């Protein structure tokens, strides 16, 4: 079995055993998804890079906090927590008024979406304009590829809550990207 | 329809994923990861080195300290017995092994046994048998036998020229500083050298007696002793001495079978 076929957990264990090549492979797997997760979560590029760096430093140094079962969920949990801390330090309010029942967000204005922008740019801005819980659920599902249960574990909420948030997020994106659909 | 829009959104989202972290961040992260590995290796090597040093130190200390091994009181016989018991059945088994004695005790017992035998041999030498005791009693002592041999085998010759001696004590003492003398009321002069009487002289008599001991040089007189056994025929034995006439003037005096001295009866005229 080649190293490329090894699971994330095996690669991380190999790195902890002194195999730098395993780290390189693991880093390659998560390099762009983690960075995009941070960007789509609302960070600017410089801040996203800083948080991205801090995230990997934790992965390198905090091996004891890894239970060895699901590296992907563990690393996204770290990234999300660091991102939240970064927002808090910058005094940026992440917890917005959100109504799970209506799925509406009074702070998200469709008027901000420029009609003439590229659809690819539109999807970026649309995702970034989602309420933070919906945004996180969408990113963890689409960017990180986590299952509903894993997302529930990372966000420490119930699985059904995740399902409803995904539904609300998609409905919101449909509204924001209507011109491209 | 809804699913179709969601697929479109997902497609657009995947197409929008073009941003990447800078190479600078990549290098920083990789460097941190490599440094962490080196740090872990260093700690591992350090731990191993420390353990090795501790083990070596402990070994050296054990070798330096004179620790007497704590031997269990298992005897050689017991070990042999245990070995035999462990062997298959075709080996003979000692059912009643002799009592357990340590190597040290065995050595001490052998030493004590040798000492007792040596002591008994010494007592046998000190307490001879009756026949041996009788033989010892009949055999003269070494000293007596030797003295007899001297008397028989040793021959002496005496040649002397006796000068005319002065008849006054003071004149005699003046001949040699080693002389001591006295003159008795009867007029007899006794002259001593090294506490030995060497001369008796009675001034009114024509003879005086001069005594000499073997090897002595008396009053400037050379004395050459030669007493042959053949000349010991005419002897008169007194209580403690035997006097043998060598010539008319010369006599040999033996005390306890030893030639003690010779005397000259010299006619002054």
Structural features, described:
The complex is a heterodimer of chains A (181) and B (269). With 181 residues, chain A is an all-alpha fold. Chain A folds into 2 domains: 3-89, Rna Polymerase Sigma Factor, Chain: A, CATH 1.10.1740; 110-180, Orthogonal Bundle (Arc Repressor Mutant, subunit A). Chain A contains 8 helices and no strands. Chain A has helices at 8-16, 20-40, 45-61, 71-89, 119-129, 132-142, 148-155, 159-176. Chain A is globular. Chain B is α+β, with helices and mostly antiparallel strands. Chain B has a domain at 150-267. Chain B has 7 helices and 8 strands; from the N terminus they run αααααααββββββββ. Chain B has helices at 2-15, 23-64, 76-86, 103-126, 130-138, 142-153, 169-173; strands spanning 179-183, 189-193, 196-201, 207-212, 235-237, 241-245, 250-255, 258-267. Chain B has an 8-stranded antiparallel beta sheet with strand order 1-2-3-4-8-7-6-5. In chain B, a hairpin with a 5-residue loop joins β3 and β4. The longest helix of chain B has 42 residues, at 23-64. Chain B is rod-shaped, with a radius of gyration of 57 Å. The N and C termini of chain B lie far apart (188 Å). The model of chain B is unreliable at 90-94 and 135-161 (pLDDT under 50). Chain A binds chain B through residues 15, 18, 20, 23-24, 27, 31-32, 35-36, 39, 45, 48-49, 52-53, 56-57, 60-61, 119-124, 127, 142-143, 170, 173-174, 177, 180-181, and chain B through 2, 5-6, 8-10, 12-17, 19-22, 25-26, 28-30, 32-34, 36-37, 40-41.
> Which percent range describes the beta-strand content of chain B?
15-25%
Backbone shape of chain A: globular
Work out the helix count of chain A. Answer: 8
How many DSSP-defined strands of chain B? 8
Distance between the termini of chain A: 43 Å
**Strand order in space, largest sheet of chain B:** 1-2-3-4-8-7-6-5
Q: How many structural domains of chain A?
A: 2
Unreliable segments of chain A (pLDDT under 50, ≥5 consecutive)?
A: 95-116
Percentage beta strand of chain A: under 5%
End-to-end gap of chain B: 188 Å
